[in-house]
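Summary of Year 1 activities. Much of the first year was spent building the evaluation harness for sequence design. The harness presents a backbone, in tokenized form, and records the residue chosen at every position. We chose the following record to illustrate the format because it has been used consistently in internal testing since the harness was completed.
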């Protein structure tokens, strides 16, 4: 058999289901890597980690290499270690923070949580202060119509302070539109509750009800509009807030509200009634009155 007629045996085909042969790409110096995948957002960190690991292994094997590379490796390792430590530390701190927040369920525990300096300015601290203010608002609203002025007077004072406190909290909720709107709504509720409540020292409201009462309808309208702006004026809630604000923006409706609530709180500053005079206790040694009154003929 001639050598030139001798042909090599054809390559054995790959088994079905097995790895397929790599087909060279014309013009390419190396065949494509079938196992290469793009991981968006992870390529550079993974490459850096692989390079750092390789350099560190070479360092352990005694291949010091370029001192600059050695310094760079050490710097990268230090940065990664610091990042890992801070990430884990922040995770632990957040877990403790929100666990403490969940356990603050009454006035005393909420105040203790908000008075802690490391927690006061966190998001959890601001929410806790908001919850504490809402609890105090509910108490003040209940006491505003108490029968004793010694109870309803301080309630009105607290509502004035809470109105300003809610407004300040709303300004602090810069990244949460829901909490911001809720704070403005709480301020608006406090303001509306004070409409018609006479100022200290006002005995009779007189004709100038608006000038003599603690709450102002115009301020209530402004707070409602701020709540709508915070939650979004085109949302369903925003539209509802704006509709309510528009209702009391009309002078006739506002005047009617002043008159009605001013009449309701007309006797707000009346002092507490004097306590009843206590009866004198029975004295067994006191002389008894005679059973019969003697007649005039008796000597």
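For this record, the design step produced the sequence shown next.
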């Amino acid at each position: 058999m001639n050598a030139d007629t001798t042909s090599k045996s054809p390559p054995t085909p790959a088994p079905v289901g097995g790895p397929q042969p790599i087909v060279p790409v014309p013009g390419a110096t190396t065949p494509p890597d079938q196992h290469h995948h793009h991981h968006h957002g992870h390529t550079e960190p993974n490459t850096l980690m692989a390079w750092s690991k390789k350099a560190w292994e070479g360092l352990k094997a005694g291949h010091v290499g370029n001192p600059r590379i050695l310094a760079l490796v050490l710097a990268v390792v230090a940065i990664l270690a610091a990042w890992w430590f801070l990430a884990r530390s922040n995770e632990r701190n957040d877990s403790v923070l929100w666990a403490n927040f969940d356990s603050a369920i009454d006035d005393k525990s909420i105040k203790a949580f908000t008075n802690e300096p490391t927690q006061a300015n966190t998001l959890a601290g601001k929410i806790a202060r908001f919850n504490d203010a809402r609890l105090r608002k509910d108490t003040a609203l209940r006491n505003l119509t108490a029968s004793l002025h010694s109870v309803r007077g301080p309630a009105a004072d607290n509502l004035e302070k809470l109105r300003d406190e809610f407004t300040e909290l709303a300004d602090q909720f810069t990244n949460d539109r829901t909490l911001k709107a809720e704070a403005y709504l709480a301020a608006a509720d406090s303001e509306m509750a004070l409409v018609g409540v006479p100022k200290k020292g006002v005995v009779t409201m007189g004709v100038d009800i608006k000038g003599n009462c603690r709450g102002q309808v115009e301020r209530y309208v402004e707070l409602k509009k701020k709540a709508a702006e915070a939650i979004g004026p085109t949302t369903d809630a925003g539209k509802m807030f704006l509709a309510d604000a528009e209702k009391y923006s009309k002078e006739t409706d506002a005047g009617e509200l002043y008159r009605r609530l001013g009449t309701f709180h007309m006797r707000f500053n009346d002092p507490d009634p004097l306590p009843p005079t206590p009866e004198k206790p029975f004295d067994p040694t006191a002389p008894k009155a005679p059973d019969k009154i003697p007649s005039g003929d008796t000597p």
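The longest helix spans residues 67-103. Quantitative recovery figures across the full test set are reported in Table 2.
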